[in-house]
Each structure stands twice: as structure tokens, then as C-alpha cells.
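Morning!

This is the sequence you dropped in the shared folder:
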Amino acid sequence: MLFNSLTFAVFLPIVFAAYWLLPHRFRWILLLAASYYFYMSWNVKYVVLILLTTVVSYLAAIGIEHSRTTRQKKCWLAGAAVISLGILFVFKYFNFAMDSLAAVMGMLAIPMHPVTLKLLLPVGISFYTFQTLSYVVDVYRGECPAEKHFGMYALFVSFFPQLVAGPIERTTNLLPQLKREQTFSYSKASYGLKLMAWGFFKKIVVADTLAVYVNNVYGNLSSHTGLSLIIASVFFAFQIYCDFSGYSDIAIGVSKLLGIDLMQNFRSPYFSGSVKEFWSRWHISLSTWFRDYVYIPLGGNRCGKLRHKLNLLITFLVSGLWHGANWTYVIWGGLHGLVQIVETTVRPKKTQVSRGWKQVLSVLLVFVFTTAAWVFFRAENLSDAIYVFLHAFDHITSPVQYVMQGLTGMALTVLSCFEILLMLAVLLLFDFFSLKRDTIVRISEMKPVLRWTIYVVFLLLMLYLLPTNPSGQFIYFQF
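The structure's back. C-alpha cells below.
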């Protein structure tokens, strides 16, 4: 069930009304049933996997809490990790591992026919696997008690707004809210609806509009050269941001309708002045997960310089692999790790450039790097990614021809260029003003005439820019 579907438009009001009409003691049952129905709408059979992961992590946490020795606790933790990650490996990484092994054997002149599985990747499996693992680790560390109420814990794992694409919630934030009696708040519900509207704008208007141009180029790379490759890559940078952050905004907004606060997942990432800052603003729930459960356990920065750099690189290589079973994702993660190593090693020299211009240049450089790295993320394989870099500047010695061929190859008209620039301007202005203060809160505090003028203009703009055939699917569902 997609957020941007008619089915969800019927589903959400029913859940919302029933939730606030029911007494508190029955609400968890409603949300659990709604969450499992939401998940089963993708594939009924795969509900067994999320249930198995839930049972394993639930029993492991209780086992850890009742263990008398550290060794027993480690056994419970290891068991939960092996089973949960084992399920994830079989469905997401088995074929990739077999193909990679066969390639290595081939390089050694050892023939091998890889065994592959024809399995459909369960939607959201990477997200709920990480959420349950963090819960078990937190119990092991003594940061939270094991939840005894199985139904409540099952709801924590399957809570439908953030189930299939995050944010990846922490036990100490979400579980207590699910257990606590919520009182309806008009201001919170109003904010939630506005955040959902902004999320739908980012997804349906910006991401789905840009997806058409990106897919046309990346779906047939050999037919494109020069500027069209660069434009498509820039478009993809905004597409994936609006697609994923749009989902997060809708998820957070839906949760607020139910009186529940999910963690912020994006904070104007394309205004970052360094790659390190970018990762403090992009997919925050995942980046903090890797920080707390991979980077810090490896030693973080509390060790020698060489080991610190290695920890950074390992963390981002694993992060890349989390995103997909393909070497392009590993390279993407590795590039982000390597650049952060450079950032921690090289100290910028003092220049005569003013702080304002220096910041602007830093933001532009980070955007150029992240866009270039996104090429590996979007390309189907390594050959396609290399093709983009090798042919992105074909005919650049003839600037007029370079620009005209690029626009023609993208099928961009004067009107479509205007519309795309308009939607990107709205997006960037919103993010810029959100750097210091929440833009939705800022607008909500304006005088009624000005506030409602902005709402009406936004609605008309959204209707005007709405694409004819929205793509529907969210990019991060494949992870």
C-alpha cells in the first residue's frame, strides 16, 4: 500500500477515526492490526518473515535480561543477530554473494556455476531488521529493559507509517510513546497534515517529474552523451532526495496524526558544507544507527589516526552494501568514506575569501561530489557508471552544440525547464529557511491573511506542476 495511493487515502482516515474513538487500552490492537494489514497488502506470504524477526528479537531480549553471565547474554545477542541477518542475507545478498564468488573463481581460472535463488525482496526488510537489532543491542547494553508485552513489541517493529522505509526508530523513542496514552492535539495534527502535504509535493511533483527524465537517460545510456548525462545526474540527486525525504515527511506527518513523534530524518542536506555534515542531515536515522552500532563499536575516533580512518571507511562500505546487493552501492559508500577521511586529514588553509562566499563554495563542492557519487547509486552496473563519467563532457569544446544536444537529448522544452526550475526553487527556498527554524512552524505563526495566501498559492502551484503520470513507487522500497 503506497502513501500516494487511493487505498491509503481510504485506509488512513479509518485508522485515524477509530484510533481516537477507541479507549487507550485497545488502541495498540487497532494499530497492530492496521500495521500488519498495511504490510500484507504488499505480499501476504512475507508477513511470516517480519513475524519471525519479531519473535526472535523479542525472545532474545528477554533471554538477555534473564541471563546471569555475560557469556549467556552474548549468546542470546549472537543468536538474534545470526537469525535476523541470516534472513536478510538469503533474501537480499545470497545471489550477489554467489555471483561475486563465481567472478573471483573465474579470475582464478576455476569454473563455477553459481547457485541463485528466485526470491522477491520483501519490502522494508532492511529497515525492520535494523530496528529489531538495535533493540536487542540496547537491551544487551542495559540502555532499555526488555519489553514483556509481545503485542506492544510487535507494534513497535511493524508500526505502519515507518515500517517499509523508515525512519529507523530507536526503542527509547517509539516504544514508550506507543504504550503511553495519547491525547489528541489539534496543533500536532495540523502540523502533521502540513508536513504530509509538503512530503507529497516533494514526492509526486518534484521526484516523479524528474524521474521521467532520469529514467529516459539512465534506461538507455548508450543513446546519450554530453550535457544530458550531467543534467540527468543532477536531476537524480534531487529525485532521490525528494522521493525519500518525501516519504519520511509523510510518515512523520501520519504519526503526528496519531499523537506520536518520529525522529527527523532529513535536515536540508544539500546545504551541507562538508560530506560529514551531509551525513548529519541525510537519512539521519540510518547514519546515527551506523554510528552507534558499527562505527563506535569498532573504536570510532577513540583510537589511533590510522584505525580511526579505517573505522570510517568500513562503516561507509557497510552502509553502501546495506543499500543494495551491487558493487556500485559499495563504491558509492566507499567514496563517501574516503572523502570524509580526506576531510579529517586535510585542514583548509586560511584564505581571503569571506565566510559567506567560502560557505557557498563549500556547499557547491559538496553538492558536486554527492551528485557524482549518486551516479554509482543510480547506474545499473559499474560499466554504466563509467560510461557516464567518460561521456559527460563529449563535445564540450563546442559550447553551443554541447548545450543544444544536451537539452534535445533530455527532451527539455522552454516550458518544462521553467517548471522544473520553479519546483526546485520552491524546494531549495523551503530547505534554506528551514536551516535555522522549521519553515512550517514559521508559516503557521504568520498572520491569517498571509498564511492562507501561502497555502492557496502552494496548492495551486502543486496542481499546476502535478505530472500526468506519477511513478507511484518509492525508490527506497527496494532497500
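Headline: The chain has a mean pLDDT of 90.

More detail when I'm at my desk.
O.
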